[in-house]
Design brief:
The chain is an alpha/beta fold and about 325 residues long. It is built from eight helices and 14 strands.
């Protein structure tokens, strides 16, 4: 007699706190990917502080979602049926949700729309330090028009990470074109690159993804917890910390390319960690046919994945950015 599989989780736990004083509306997500547990731990700790009165919401609304993808969490893997942080748009009217993650997205999208600010807590597979990810600069383009880059940059600045990374959707679009032999991706293909932050920006808000460290890093839950408090203080939703000084300016990196793994025989020349520096001409990996992939310029490896499936992202490449998160418009003095 075969062992019965546990039922698919059908409950999304959402905690809401509303002050009698009006103010910003912040939503914090954890567990968008099931094997990333630090955000959940940081959120649960914050919930306990709110319930006990150790932390008091002075104004605005706070929504906490400890596990945004219950199926992926039960399986303790990145995805349930697919990546929740892709194709993050509501199911079109008249259509049925295509999968479990679409059902979750249909619940989360209207929830995000009711908020001004999103903090999405993640971790990553390779070794490396915590960092924050932000979206585009203010623009009126067609890919990701945006008008709140300064506010988003300030939120990233207060996350306390040594680095901030920009340029995700631009490089996602470039990667699609690369796989299509240079042809620009259509709207449907680009939509698959949309995650929680892209949706938040499309609805008039702004958001930061905080990568709290490697999945098993014991410090990652503390990074998540501190970030929630930092966001609440920045937005004036809780009392300020009288001991806190101005945040140190992180280094800002801009993603400039993505390289796919073509074959399971493609191998890195060594075990890379996110933000490992590479010099122009330095070898990064070797293709199955013996071709050496070398850095075309000085820069940094981001999200190296030695276990990437053929046809998917193997590693990203970033360079230093000239943007200044402390100044409107981002111009350096």
């Amino acid at each position: 007699m075969s062992e019965q599989q546990p039922p698919v989780p059908d409950l999304l736990r959402i905690h809401g706190f509303t002050s009698l004083e009006p103010g910003p509306r912040l939503i914090v997500l954890g567990g968008v990917h099931g094997d990333e547990t630090c955000g959940t731990t940081g959120i649960e700790r914050t919930l306990a502080e709110l319930d006990s009165g150790a932390l008091q919401l002075l104004r605005g609304q706070l929504t906490l979602v400890p596990v945004a993808n219950p199926l992926a969490r039960r399986l303790m893997r990145r995805e349930g049926e697919r990546n929740l942080n892709r194709l993050f748009k509501p199911t079109p009217a008249g259509e049925a949700p295509a999968d479990y993650e679409a059902r979750i997205t249909d619940l989360l999208c209207p929830l995000l729309e009711r908020h001004d600010v999103l903090l999405d807590l993640h971790s990553f597979q390779s070794a490396g330090e915590a960092f924050a990810m932000i979206g585009p600069r203010d623009n009126a383009g067609t890919l990701e028009p945006f008008a709140r880059a300064f506010e988003e940059g300030l939120l990233a600045l207060h996350m306390g990470t040594p680095r901030v990374v920009e340029g995700w959707l631009d490089i996602y679009a470039a990667g699609l074109a690369q796989r299509a032999g240079g042809e620009a991706a259509d709207e449907a293909a680009l939509a698959f690159g949309w995650g929680t932050n892209e949706y938040m920006r499309s609805r008039g808000g702004y958001g930061v993804t905080l990568e709290c460290g490697q999945h098993q890093d014991p410090a990652a839950p503390e990074v998540a917890h501190r970030a929630i408090h930092a966001a609440l203080r920045l937005l004036g939703m809780v009392a300020p910390d009288p001991q806190a000084g101005p945040p140190a300016a992180p280094s800002l990196l801009r993603l400039v390319s993505v390289t796919d793994r073509d074959s399971e025989e493609d191998q890195f020349v060594r075990e890379w960690a996110t933000f490992d520096a590479v010099a122009k001409g330095e070898s990064i990996g070797v293709r199955a046919d013996g071709r050496v992939l070398a850095a075309e310029r000085d820069g940094f490896i981001v999200f190296p994945n030695a276990e990437a499936l053929p046809g998917t992202e193997w590693f990203y490449f970033a360079v230093e950015s000239e943007r200044d998160l402390r100044r409107p418009g981002g111009a350096r003095p």
